[in-house]
Design goal:
Layout lengths: L5 H6 L4 H11 L10 H14 L4 H9 L16 H10 L3 H13 L17 E11 L8 E3 L2 E11 L4 E9 L18 E4 L6 H9 L3 E5 L6 E6 L10 E9 L2 H6 L4 E8 L4 E7 L6 H10 L1 H13 L10 H24 L6 H10 L7 H6 L19
Parallel strand pairs: 1-5, 5-6
Antiparallel strand pairs: 1-3, 2-3, 3-4, 6-10, 7-8, 8-9, 9-10
Helix pairs in contact: 2-6, 3-4, 3-11, 4-5, 5-11, 6-11
Length: 389
């Protein structure tokens, strides 16, 4: 039995020295009056792990762990007004930078061995999700006439299934416009849906030696240059593999090079899916499987919305919303790290639920995630003791 709570042991996995370095660079502890950046981080991580619905829940929740806060690196539980005030004032970029630092440490342990793809290129899955907000409260989050929202443009790394880059914009920003700022790595491959079928964007990727696999729109006008042979006895879902040129002058001016077009049959949804790519050497089946892997980014969006506190917000300012989004991303990174190092084969939803129920229980973290259902036998009694009765 350990003397430290489960939550304290999870927090101990975080690199505080790197956090302090960012705090110093951003100068986020200036005039902190006791509620420093580390306490702020712990408070917002508690909000995510406990799924607190308000700043009052955060304050009361941490207050209930009296005597254990020193293990979290904080002195006292913050008041609700302090949390609210700092959510409005403290620079949200602190939490964004710390997420990327943790991605290089804890995130590396979530990498999976590739099974399907025998390619050297690093694979990224690109998509966005809309997080709805009440326009009367979040008047800065423009989306529709009577509805507010922010949009989270996410570049998901296939190996670890964690965001390599996130760009949070207002809800009106188109998917392709939100993708122009993503970092580009030479020889990587970006897999995306039809909303990223922007030939100016694709030309930027191609010019930076980035491969792409994108579903093209139904109204695409093109001229077939060469039809490639299809495999005879395997991969029957491949309907067409051809080299094309864009027909419309406007599109051709934006992307003057030839493209490869692969048409596949989706048996599950009974539909034809048409893809374009600038990768000419991989097999058509590899192109097909890459696009099929894009579904992982949809699963990630579902996980972060259902398991964490990101569909409603405890603050209404832009800064408060950004802090809550980035601390949610830090939380999902920690959870996937714990899932990766555990010997027990956890479903992420079960792991979240079990941690939430045992947040302040004093149990060994590693032993618990390895053997969550291992019940210790009761201590043996001395048979001679019964003689007394």
């Amino acid at each position: 039995m350990t003397n430290v709570t489960l939550f304290s042991q999870i927090i101990s996995k975080l690199d505080r020295s790197s956090f302090n370095k960012i705090v110093k660079e951003k100068n986020t502890d200036k005039h902190n009056k006791g509620f420093n950046s580390w306490t702020h981080l712990i408070s917002m991580l508690f909000c995510q792990f406990a799924k607190s619905q308000s700043v009052r829940d955060i304050s009361n929740g941490l207050r209930s762990a009296t005597g254990n806060l020193n293990h979290l690196g904080i002195e006292t539980a913050p008041s609700k007004s302090t949390v609210s005030y700092q959510n409005q004032r403290r620079n949200w970029e602190l939490f964004r930078e710390y997420y990327y630092v943790l991605l290089q440490t804890l995130g590396q342990q979530t990498f999976r061995k590739r099974i399907k793809f025998k390619i050297k290129s690093k694979i990224f899955l690109l998509d966005s999700t809309v997080i709805s907000l009440c326009l009367s409260l979040f008047d800065w989050a423009k989306y529709k006439t009577a509805k507010g929202a922010v949009k989270m443009h996410t570049l998901l790394e296939y190996d670890g299934l964690l965001p390599a880059y996130v760009n949070v914009t207002d809800g009106k920003t188109a998917d392709n416009k939100g993708a122009y700022d993503i970092p580009l790595i030479k020889q990587c491959v970006i897999v995306a849906d039809r909303f990223y079928n922007d030939f100016s964007l694709l030309h930027v990727w191609d010019s930076n030696e980035v491969f792409f696999v994108v579903r093209h729109k139904e109204n695409l006008k093109f001229v077939s240059i060469k039809e490639r042979e299809l495999p005879d006895n395997r991969h029957q879902h491949i309907l067409k593999d051809e080299i094309i040129e864009l027909q419309r002058d406007e599109a051709k001016n934006k992307y003057p090079k030839q493209l490869r077009r692969v048409a596949i049959w989706d048996e599950e949804n009974q539909q034809e899916i048409e893809l374009i790519t600038n990768q000419m050497s991989w097999t058509a089946n590899t192109i097909s499987e890459l696009y099929k892997a894009r579904w992982q980014v949809e699963i990630f969006f579902r996980e972060i919305k259902q398991l964490l506190h990101i569909k409603s917000f405890i603050g209404t300012s832009h800064n408060a919303v950004m802090i809550q989004i980035w601390t949610a991303l830090i939380t999902i990174l920690i959870l996937k790290y714990l899932k990766a190092i555990a010997k027990y084969d956890w479903y992420l939803s079960n792991l979240v639920a079990f941690i939430r129920l045992n947040l302040f229980v004093k149990v060994d973290l590693i032993k618990w995630i390895n053997e969550p259902f291992n019940i210790e036998p009761p201590p043996k009694t001395n048979p001679l003791q019964r003689v007394l009765f």
